[in-house]
Each structure stands twice: as C-alpha cells, then as structure tokens.
Amino acid sequence: MTADAPATPREKTLRRAAANSAFSQTARAALTDMADDMRNDRVEDVARDIQTYGNHIASPERLVIAATHDARTHPIQLVKDDALLRQGWEEITRSTEPDAVEALDIALGRHPNLLPFGHFTHIPVTDNPVVERWTRRLALCDPTAGHATLAEDKTVDAFFTDPLTDMPVVRTKDDDENHAQWLFYVPLSLPAGRGELASIVLHGPVWITTTDGFVHPAPCTPGEHLWWGYAGGERPLELAHVVNVLLDNLGARITLNNYWDSAPDGLTTLFNKDHKRGTELTRAALLHARMTPPKSRR
After folding, report:
1. Distance CA 76, CA 38 (A)
2. pTM of this prediction?
3. Which of 6, 33, 170, 205 could form a disulfide with 150 if both were Cys (CB 3.0 to 4.6 A apart)?
4. What would the pLDDT profile of 81-136 be if each residue is shown by its tens digit?
5. Is residue 32 within 8 Å of residue 85, measured between CB atoms?
6. C-alpha span between 275 and 115 (Å, rounded)
7. Up-side HSE of residue 254: CA atoms within 13 Å toward CB?
C-alpha cells in the first residue's frame, strides 16, 4: 500500500503562497520549487525511518509498516536556474502580501543564498557620524515583506529603503527592554560606476566610504558577518578577502568562495589587529597593506 507523506506546515505555507494570484509566474515558480525541495526531503526522511524502524531485522523494536510513499512521484524535479529563482524571491521580498512575509521567513532559514540581500544587522540609533551619513539618505517607505522579517514583533518607528542599494531598513522605538535600533540587511554588492573605495570604518558592522562621498554597510553574504581583531576567528580573513575585491571593483557581487586562498596576507594581518571601534583605514593604508607581506619572525 502506498500513501503520500504528510506535508509539513512550512511546505503548506509555501504552497498556499504559490497559489496566490497576486504573485507573478516567476515568483510562484520560486515558491513551488522550495516547497518541492521540502517535499523531497520529507519523503527521504520517511524512507530512512522505514528503513531504520521497519526493515532492520536486528532491531528488537521492529515496526510493521502500513504504507510506503509512492516512489513513482519521487523525487520531484527542481528548477536548476538559480537566476530565475532569485528573480522570483526578489519579487516576494518587495511584496506587501501577508503570504510573502511567511514565505520569506521560511526562505531566510532554508535558502538565504536565493535572496537579494546579505546578513541581518542591528546597530543602536546614536549620533555616530559615519552611520548618520548613511541614514540621511534613507527614504521613508511603506513596509514590504523584507521590512516585516526585520521588524518581527518589535516596536517600529519607521520603515526605510536605501535608494542606492534597495535594501530594507527599519528604525525601532525605545521601549522598556530595548533602546532604539536600526535593523537592516547588508547588500550583496554596492552600486557599480560610483567611484572607488575610499576607506573602511570599523564601527560595529564594517562601513565602506567611497570617493564620490557615499557611505555603505560593507557587502557580505547572508550567512556571514565581517569583523576584525585577533579573537575574530576567520572573520578578519573574510574581511581581507572582501576588501581586496572592493579595492579593484567596488560594484563586485561578494562571495566567500575560496576566501582563504584569495585574501592577501598583508590585509589579513592588518585586520587581525585589535583596532579600536571607529578606526578608519584609508585606501592608501589598505593598498599598502595589500602589497606588503607580513614580516617573518626570526
């Protein structure tokens, strides 16, 4: 006897969203593909359970299996075009549909690399001059699904979009438990054709200043954040890789593939130092560090 493995609540959420006619065909395909991926995992999990608890003769707790999944419908073929999936998820991120919020929350935990932004960041609302240069250009807006996943159940003061990177930003209010904060996703890349990297500022998240006068949160991948200092583990190495890329191409899309091989030793040594928060490293200092290998100890 065969039977379908029960769908998980997350799969049901994605399939409900995929049936929402407010989304384009591309967005609905992205939602369906993630639901199908979950379905494949679910069927494989059930098959392993049957193998472990029903077919393992040596087990004293062997169970009688009433039904198995119909193997003729498994596995479901998935979309192989990541660019198409990213296009769909970008639409979902900017949507105001409640279905989009629930779906995006699932995608953040399952396949964040398909989303149009990097890792989540939060910083206090303070008078820091570098942060103020960035926040002054933010544009007030109505909330999207991207904003909703940032805000969650926090007390929101206002919603913004960075007009240069399209990143969603939320400003919260002071409450009994927390001070006001800026909540945002860092970009995956910076605008192309807008000058060169002028300096980096080590203040909470790493900030990039450009030769045409702009300030940006340093771009990074969804699963990582950039840091410096000896106790930072591999973060200084990742930062050295990112800065190395941006020195040559400010608009490059950041990946951390093989960063351990591509990060220059001189930049890695520079970022392994315990710089004070707020330290600004100029382009000249960064280029000098990149071309200067660390001195060997005798």
Report:
1. 10
2. 0.87
3. 170
4. 999 999 999 999 999 999 999 999 999 999 999 999 999 999 999 878 999 999 99
5. no
6. 32
7. 33
